[in-house]
Write a structure and sequence with these properties.
With about 250 residues, this protein is mainly alpha-helical. It has 8 helices and 2 strands. Helix 5 runs antiparallel to helix 6, helix 5 packs parallel to helix 7 and helix 6 packs parallel to helix 8. It is rod-shaped.
Length: about 250
């Protein structure tokens, strides 16, 4: 038998799951009888087990007492096999950890982005709806109108600032890219808020026209929404510049 044939037998033994179980059991026990191997492996057919043991004759040797033990080649082969198994298990753990970290990071990023979009949309819209309702029943003092608009603007700007941080952390590595992403975010959110705000304005205007109760002008709400949007868009590059300047100074 050539050296190549020996290698083929060794690799075939280690590749076959039943023979691998036999080798691992014998390695663990030191030596084992035919019956011990049969009970542990679960092979009721003695002829089949004898066949597997015969195929392992290069790796397993039988003593005069009939016990099976690993040969010198078998011990070396199992040592190498165990090292490979440990390395594969370590590699699988590393890969799984990287996959889990990737999924966790992207899930976290998605949740943050969803919260920022929701906040950028809901805060101004809530203020506009409240102003609209109060305008319809003509109970909105000027100071309350100003407070609501300032709250809507401040909330939107806060979400915009958080988006700059989010984009810098998860996506952009340069100020230019950060500015482009932030501008796109601000434009898209402005269009959404303006569209929903305009729908609120139209609803309020229609209600005022059919209401028998004298109401305050609704035009001021539309003008304020437009001015607030312009100020919001103008704030975007300023926030990006301030954030990146602070990051460079660290």
């Amino acid at each position: 038998m050539t050296e190549t044939d020996d290698y083929d037998l060794i690799f075939a033994a280690l590749k076959n799951p039943i023979r691998r179980q036999i080798l691992q059991f014998i390695e663990q026990k030191g030596e084992a009888s035919f019956t011990d191997i049969q009970n542990v492996i679960g092979i009721t057919d003695t002829g089949l087990l004898s066949y597997h043991l015969k195929e392992l004759n290069l790796l397993v040797e039988q003593s005069s007492r009939g016990k099976y033990a690993l040969s010198e080649i078998g011990q070396t082969s199992m040592t190498l096999f165990n090292k490979v198994e440990k390395e594969q298990a370590r590699t699988r753990k590393i890969v799984q950890k990287e996959v889990d970290n990737y999924i966790s990071a992207h899930f976290k990023a998605s949740v943050i982005l969803a919260a920022l979009i929701l906040g950028s949309f809901c805060i101004p819209l809530s203020a506009d709806i409240l102003v609209s309702v109060q305008t319809i029943i003509n109970t909105l003092p000027l100071w309350q109108f100003i407070v609501l608009q300032l709250a809507a603007f401040s909330g939107a700007v806060l979400c915009l600032a958080l988006f700059v941080w989010y984009d810098r952390r998860y996506h952009s590595k340069t100020q230019k890219t950060n500015l482009i992403h932030t501008t796109l975010f601000a434009v898209v959110m402005s269009l959404i808020v303006l569209l929903t705000g305009y729908s609120t304005y139209n609803f309020t205007q229609a209600t005022i026209e059919i209401s028998p109760i004298p109401t305050a002008s609704n035009e001021i709400l539309l003008i304020t929404m437009i001015l607030r949007t312009v100020a919001y868009l103008a704030t975007a590059p300023l926030i990006v510049y301030a954030f990146n300047k602070k990051a460079k100074n660290r």
